[in-house]
## 1
Amino acid sequence: MPFKRGSTSAKPFRGSSSVKYMTVGSTLVQPDWTVTGGDTYSQFEESIARTNAAATVADQVITPTGTYPGGSAFVGGVLLPDGRVFCIPNTTTSARIYDPAADELTTPTGTYPGSGAFIGGVLLLDGRVYCVPYVSTSARIYDPVADEVTTPTGTYPGAAAFIGGVLLPDGRVFCVPYNSTSARIYDPVADEVTTPTGTYPGSGAFVGGVLLPDGRVFCVPRNSTSARIYDPVDDEVTTPTGTYPGAVAFHGGVLLPDGRVFCVPHNSTSARIYDPVADEVTTPTGTYPGSGAFYGGVLLPDGRVYCIPFGSTTARIYDPVADEVTIPTGVYPAGGAFAGGVLLPDGRVFFVPLIATTSRLYGGGQSYNINILLSAYFNKL
């Protein structure tokens, strides 16, 4: 299925060395992270291309200040508008916030259910963080300005219902179905939860989603052998072209600079890339370790994808222009150390600790436009 909206304004660069800057008069237009969809995606695309064209990424790893609880404490993180990282509580009953400018870790106000309550989070348009219910039958919203946690209206299925969420162009949150056979959408303005049209496979089908340039949501296949795409305008679910391995193949996805989706290998020993313009799935070059290797990925300032180590003791970086996989510097703890990563404004990658009691920071050397980092295209599990 090709782009239905915004196709004329979202033309992929696909590695072009000739970058046309979007201008109003003589001023370069920077994207607004609160505005998404096919009519505005070209601003993000061009700003990303400008960064990619000159970016350098330091191949280095450090262990930042701070000790975390371990024991599957956090899954996924969200970049706050002030540049700090909010770690989504899973088994722990308190969150953590890492401040990269001060290199300090704090425990914000608020108590969470623990016991696998939430997996993944979404930055709402008002700057608050929505925690996506996994085992919990209610969500939580953290307000970094007021430093408080609230329980919004709405009941969820529990029973490992959802993993990860995506901020829709209209400001609502789409919860990606894991065991649930239906999605949920939370509206922060109306403070209500609805069940959109569409049935999903359940049984651990998807982990995380990616907002496509046209405003639809791509659900990343885990156990499912086919993806799903949710269209919030038509309120419909479709099954795009392409077959996936199933068997816990991928955990999370990354929107590439050219508008395609990179599926991060978990058990699969090869990645997959979905092209929403051509509606096709391809297997890019490169072999991965399998055996629960990676959980989530981050788009580096130079346009490559950094895969966050989970079971693997080394990371992988995929270059979509060269179509190659490399092993960057760094040896990590095995056994589910980290779950998800967040790109910081200084260009480093923050690893969200799951089993690990310390985080890691990879890269640096290239700052990134904060509007891109906060955008729903990139700021999610």
## 2
Amino acid sequence: MTVGVVGDSVMISALPGLQAEADRRGWLFVNGAHRACPVGYEPLFLLDGTPAPGQCDGIKSLHFQLMVARPDVIVWLDINSRWARKDSAGTLLQPGTQAWKDELYPEWTMVLDRFLAAGARVVVVMPPLRSQQAAGCKGVTSAARCREVQSQDAVIREATPEWFASVADRQGIYMIEVDSLLCPNGYPCPTRISGITVRETGYDQTHFTAAGAAWFAPHLFDRVLAALNVEPPPGQTG
């Protein structure tokens, strides 16, 4: 089986584990993710209208190379689309607003249709909760960062299933969740799981550690296979 991934730096941080696990299972693994870039191609902006971090001009080319590999399945995890966008008139659209959704959803759908037309099945990962601090951020250290992460989580976690519902009638698209792995009881997400520091702590709270990526990869792939109703060969489960 050939498996591709798309997404931003969260997916990038998981790559070492995903590549190693794909090798262990005898799969061909193809990366289509790029640090600081969304799955779509339109530029993103900070809340004040300045360009968001990241040079994403090469995303279309990266996706083209992914599709050339003819992946059987593409795993999609897009947290970076949480940033502001602009409409065709150049008006800044704040994350979570209906106008913002009206720009984002067609963009996601266009990319999805390209992947489906290339013969891939697409498994969308619900962006997981990330904050390792209490809900609402009251009385926590680094409260500003806590509020930032939890606000971003709220925006992208509302948008993703809403968009998915609008395209769920297409053949070959699936959704899975990983909250039950990474944050089973809601905020605060655990710092350590099974004795492993799975995600970076402190200011980050988002990206996988090397040990975390190795722990997460087999679980993610098992959930992908379950969504596709494919049984892994004996000895190839997490």
## 3
Amino acid sequence: MGGGDGSLWIGTAAGLARWQNGQLVNYPETGRYVNAIIEDRNGTVWIALTRGDHPLCQVADLKTICYGQADGIRFPYTSASALTNDSLGNLWIAGASFLVR
């Protein structure tokens, strides 16, 4: 996904990476298959991950903060597969059989 700052966000089977100004930065704490990447209107990058207790992550500087059931996010499964923003700026998260905002 192309970021608003000109960087390129790359989701792989091993986690998240960012290419900017000729440098590749890996985010090893993601460490799982990245299903979706989106930037919200505030410039915050969000990723949806497969498997694990924290399938939704927010990129903050050089690290990620991941959220799951312990943080009040209730997914029926441990994977999130798609992300989108609506016209009001709400983040929508989808999985195999769920859609939450």
## 4
Amino acid sequence: MLDPDQRTLLTDVLKPPLGYAFDQAIAATYSLDLTTLLSVPLHLALFANKDSRDLLRNPVAILEALNRTVSKLGIYCQHGAIHAPEQQHVLYSQLEPAVMEVRAPGGGSFHPKFWVLRYRDRDDRIRCV
């Protein structure tokens, strides 16, 4: 659980605990900014790669790592509340399999806000944050 009185960078929160690797994540939110969302699987992919500089030099490797990471995400948001970026980029389309728009029953709003990330170690122990 994050301390509400302390500022934390999203990238610091995504970093796996020592000895663990990202396994899966689920999140729910009202609105969704695709640029911010794209940063999550990209950072998770960078943390998973031993040589992130090498990964950043190879666009095909970035795309493969992004696809592998996005396949482990489930993001739920209010139907119609996705904020499209001003500039189009092919990487935004890679997020489609992970994003599910939902409607609250009875005409209400879907408004939870949480992220749960699961990490595994070599002994198949699980840790969630």
